[in-house]
Amino acid sequence: MEFFLTLENIIQTSDPQKKIQDCTNFYEAFTKGEVRMAPSCPPKIFQSPSYEAFCTIVAPAQVPRRSRLGTREGRGVLLHAIAHIEYSAIDLALDACYRYRSMPWEFYKDWLEVAVEECRHFAMIEELLRELGYKYGDFPVHKGLFDAAMASLDLVSRMAVVPRYLEANGLDANPKIIAKLSRFGDDFAKRIQEALEVILKEEIGHVAKGDRWFGWACTRAGIQDMEQEYFKQVERVYPQTLGSKRGLNIEARKQAGFSSKEIALLTKG
Ligand SMILES: [Fe+2]
Ligand SMILES: [Fe+2]
User: Fold this and answer.
1) What average pLDDT does the chain have?
2) I want to staple 90 with a disulfide (CB 3.0 to 4.6 A). Which of 68, 118, 163, 167 is the partner?
């Protein structure tokens, strides 16, 4: 089994069950040393995300709004949006392994571990979604995460934009959803909250891995001011976002490697 070619196939697999199975098997084979690295072609720049096969893709403003969390439909919309983030995150973690060649073994191990955790997150949320009578693909989605990844192809930029910006945003959003759900107090709301708590804990690890490899990539590129580089990279993909952030999960971000200065710069206008 060749590492990069197998990854290319798993990333392009659209069937969620198959992707999860293949991803889990691949991780196992990798840790057992059964995968060889002999890339025959450079990494592809994907033109469309793998979920295009079964999801209707719309502009971000047209995605159904997450509201009315007391209703079946409102909860379906919420769970679908989270499932979509998790599913996208599987591909993004695999893409980090696929795209960057001749990296230390730990780099591949880290991002495959993340991919397997994202598979678990997706499966957990999708199960709840199914209990409500929906499935992944039932609501329109946007492809913002995919676009951001394809707009950040070099390693410094990718580590800044995907784990250290997008996944870090998830650390802020997650407790707010948990808080909104606590108004209801029913069993199903509690089960969503429990799933979100598991996700939050593991996502701190993903952002921390991003922090580690962002630092590594900056050092390799001879970049001295990593804080300045971070803001430069994020602003390139998301202009005027920095300084506009409110309600950061400061504790989680600090655990994941954000400096106090970065946190201050993210929030101050
Ligand atoms: Fe996740
Ligand atoms: Fe993640």
Assistant:
1) 96
2) 118
Number of residues assigned to the chain? 269
Q: For the chain, how many structural domains are there in total?
A: 1
CATH number at 123 reads 1.20.1260
CB 221 within 8 Å of CB 227: no
Tell me, yes or no, if the pTM score tops 0.85. yes
Nearest to 250 by CA among 240, 241, 242, 260: 260
Q: How many CB atoms lie within 10 A of CB 33?
A: 7
89 CA from centroid of ligand 1 (Å): 6
By the CB criterion, residues less than 5 angstroms from ion ligand 2 are 89, 167, 203, 206
Q: Compute the CA torsion angle 75, 77, 83, 88 (nearest 10 deg).
A: -160
Chain segment 141-189, per-residue pLDDT in tens: 999 999 999 999 999 999 999 999 999 999 999 999 999 999 999 999 9
